[in-house]
Specification:
- There is one protein chain.
- This protein is mainly beta.
- The protein has one domain: Sandwich (Jelly Rolls), CATH 2.60.120.
- The relative contact order is 0.28.
Amino acid sequence: MSKNEFDLNKLIEYPKSGILSKVLIKSPTKDVTLFCMSKGSELSEHTSTKEGFVYVLEGKGTFILKNKKILMKKGVLIHMEKSAKHALKAKNNTTFLLTLF
């Protein structure tokens, strides 16, 4: 496998608690990170200095974007504007890709 190709199924691993993140691509114009959240873990409300997308690969959880609840489940794509307040909580083990640009 080359540095331009990723087998996401092999990269998914859940910690006993908390969140495991793996940076897949980092450049001046974009970042792609794989997040694996153990059941019950959460990220408190925060913002990003960049615009981005969250793409849910597996699991279930709640993504709160600008005070609106969005169900995180396989196949859901969430668009975040730059500086938008957001938070999330994993109901089950949950994996997603975060792309910032």
